[in-house]
Amino acid sequence: MNTTITPRAPGFFRFTVLFVLCCILLFSCQYTYKIHATPHDALILVDGQPVVPEDENTSNSNSITITASHRDYTPIETTAVLHDPFATNVISIDLVKKKYAMVIDCAPREYQISIDHGTAAAPPIHASLEHGAHSVTLVSGGKEVYSEAIEVTAAKRKVIYHPQSSYGTRFPFIDENKIRFLGSFPTGKQPKQVVFSPDSEYLYIPLLADEGFDVYHMPSLTYLKKIPAGASPSYLGFVEGLFLEHTNTFLVTQMTRSRIIEYSVQNPAEPVFSREINSKGNMPKVVAYSKKLDCIAVSNWMENSVVILDYATGNIKHVIPNLSVPRGVLFSPDERYLYIASYEGGFTVKFETASWKEVNRVSVPKTAMRHIVQTKNGKTLFVSDMMFSKIFEIDATSFSLSHTYSVFSLPNTIDLTPNDELLFVSCRGPNSPEGYLYPSVYPGKVLAIDVASRKIIGAIEGGRQPTGLDVSSDGKLLVFSNFQDADIDVYNIESLYSSTEK
Questions:
Q1: Rounded Cα distance, 400 and 466, in Å
Q2: In 20, 190, 267, 353, which residue has its Cα 20 to 30 A from 210's Cα atom?
C-alpha cells in the first residue's frame, strides 16, 4: 500500500514560525520607556520605584502606574500603557501648579488693586493664585501708581504698602513657616466677637449689626447657619458670648435690649433657645461666670455698673456702681476675686467676691481699658488700653502695674494660648477721620507677645478693624474677626509655640 504525503506550501510554515515568534516576543519581551516630566525636577515613581526623568527604563509589563509629585505642584497618579515593544515609549507627565487662597489688601485703602495686570478692583481682593511670582499694582484714577512683585508659596493675607506710607510697618511679621493661613471666611454684619466652643469644634460669632450670631464648624471650616437670637433679633446689637461647659449653654449679650440670651448647646451645631435674662442695666457688654457662686457678672456700659445676677433665677445678688463705663469683667481662677476694666475711668479694679468690696485698683489716667485676661495660675493679668495703644501687665497679688507694652493702633480683644506662653492682641488700626464706623484707611494687625520674655515676636496682617479674637482650647487655631470687612481670618498656630501646659 502506497501512502502519498502532499507537502504544505512554504508560506504556511513561514506564517506558523512568525506567529510563534510573535507570541514569544509578546509574552516575554521587555518594554522600554522614558518619562518626560514638567517640572523637570518632579519626583517620579513607577510601580512604587523611583525613576529619573528622561532616563530609559524597562518594564516586563505593558501597563505601568506612575506617581508624580513636587512641592509646588499638585501631585497625580496615572496608568500608562506601553504600546511598542520594539521602540522607546515616551510618556509626558505635566503637573499643574498648586493654587492658594489669597487675600490681597493695600495701605492706605484709597487705591484699587490689579493682580497680574488684570482688571482693577476695590480691596480686599480674594483670589486663587498659582504658586510662584505675581505682580500687584495699586491703581488710582485708572493710572498705575505703584507695583510690587510677590511670591505666592502658601495661602495668606498680603498687604501692599504704598512706599510713601509706612504706617504700621514697624512690627516685624511672624515667620510664615510658623503659622498657616487657613483662609478668610464671610460673616454677618459687624462681627464683634468670636468664641470657640469648649471642644474647639465650633465657632460662634456675635454680630453687632445683624440678627444674632453665626455658627461655623471648624474642622471642616464650614459655615453652618445664622441664629436669630432671642425674642427680638431685629433689634440687632449682639456683642459678646460665653460658653458654660458644665451646663452645655451659651450666653450672648444683646445691648440694644439689655438682655443676656441663653441657648442650650447639647449639639453646638443646633443651638436651642432657652431663655432671656434681664441684665438689670443699660447696654450690657461682657459676661463672666462663677461656678462656685453660680452667678453671672455683667458689665452694663451705659449704666456705669456691673451687676451680679443669680444664674438660676436671673435675680440681682449685688450691684457694683460708679465704674465709669465698665467693659471687661473676669473672675480669678479661684473665683475669690472679680476684676473690672473701666473704659472711661482709666482703671482696673479688684473686688473680693465674698463681700463684693473693693480690694485694690490700678489707675492709669486717661486710658480706655477694655479687655482683661489672666494666666491660669492667677498671678498675672493683661489689660488692653485703646486710648494709648498699650497692653498693661498687672501683678495680681500686689495689684500693681508690672509692665507696659506699646502695640499697634487701638488694641481691643486679647487672649492667651492655653499654656499662657503667648498673648495675642487684636489691633483695629487707626479709625477713619469720620469715625470708627466708617471705612478704615489702614488695615489692622494682630500681634503676638511672648509672655516670658515680654517681647513682641511679630504681627499678622488683619483686615479692616480686627476686633474679636479667640484661641481654641486645644491651642491649634487662632481666629479673629475683621469688623468692617464682615469676615474672619483663621490661622493654624501649632508651630508658633510649644503648645504644652506650663
A1: 29
A2: 267
Check whether residue 343 and residue 471 sit in a common domain.
Answer: yes
Tell me the per-residue pLDDT of 472-485, one tens digit each, with 9 for 90 and over: 999 999 999 999 99
Its domain, for residue 46, covers 32-96
Question: Of 96, 125, 147, which residue sits at a domain end?
Answer: 96
Assigned C-alpha cell, 476? 491649634
**Is residue 109 classed as helix, strand or coil in its secondary structure?**
coil
SS3 of 430, please? Answer: coil
> Could you tell me which residues are beta bridge partners of residue 62?
none
Whether residues 368 and 383 fall in one domain: yes
Q: Please name the amino acid found at residue 329.
A: V
The alpha helices in 338-456, defined as continuous H runs, are none
**226: which strand partners?**
214
Residues 457 and 448: their CA atoms lie apart, in Å, by: 6
The 10 Å CB-count burial string (b at 16+, else e) for 463-480 is bbbbbbbbbbbebebbbb
What's the rounded Cα separation, in Å, for the pair 221 and 106? 26
**H-helix or E-strand containing 18?**
helix 10-28
Per-residue HEC secondary structure of 220-274 comes to CCEEEEEECCCCCHHHCCEEEEEEEHHHCEEEEEECCCCEEEEEECCCCCCCEEE
| Mean pLDDT score, 21-49 | 83
pLDDT in tens, 356-415: 999 999 999 999 999 999 999 999 999 999 999 999 999 999 999 999 999 999 999 999
3-state helix, strand, coil in the chain (%, to 5): 5, 50, 40
Distance CA 140, CA 126 (A): 20
Cell output for 392: 498693661
Closest to 269 in 3D by CA, of 340, 199, 321, 336: 199
In this structure, are residues 334 and 314 in contact, taking their beta carbons and an 8 Å threshold?
no
- Beta strand spans in 72-179 (E): 73-81, 88-94, 96-97, 99-107, 112-115, 125-130, 132-140, 143-152, 156-161
What's the CA gap between 289 and 269, in Å, rounded?
23
Domain of 80, CATH number, reads 2.60.40.1120
Q: What is the DSSP string of 39-63?
A: STT-EEEETTEEE-TTS-EEESSSE
Q: Please tell me whether residues 379 and 477 are part of one structural domain.
A: yes
pTM of structure: 0.87
Q: Answer yes or no: do 62 and 104 share one domain.
A: no
> What would the grid cell of residue 181 be?
493661613
Rounded CA gap, 161 and 159, in Å?
6
Tell me, yes or no, whether 73 and 119 share the same domain: no
Cα–Cα dist 384/62, whole Å: 69
Residue 449 contacts by C-beta under 8 Å, 6 or more apart in sequence? 391, 405, 422, 423, 424, 425, 455, 456, 457
- CB within 8 A of 397, min separation 6: which ones? 379
H or E element that contains 21: helix 10-28
- Cβ atoms of 268 and 197 closer than 8 Å: yes
C-alpha cell at 310: 443669680
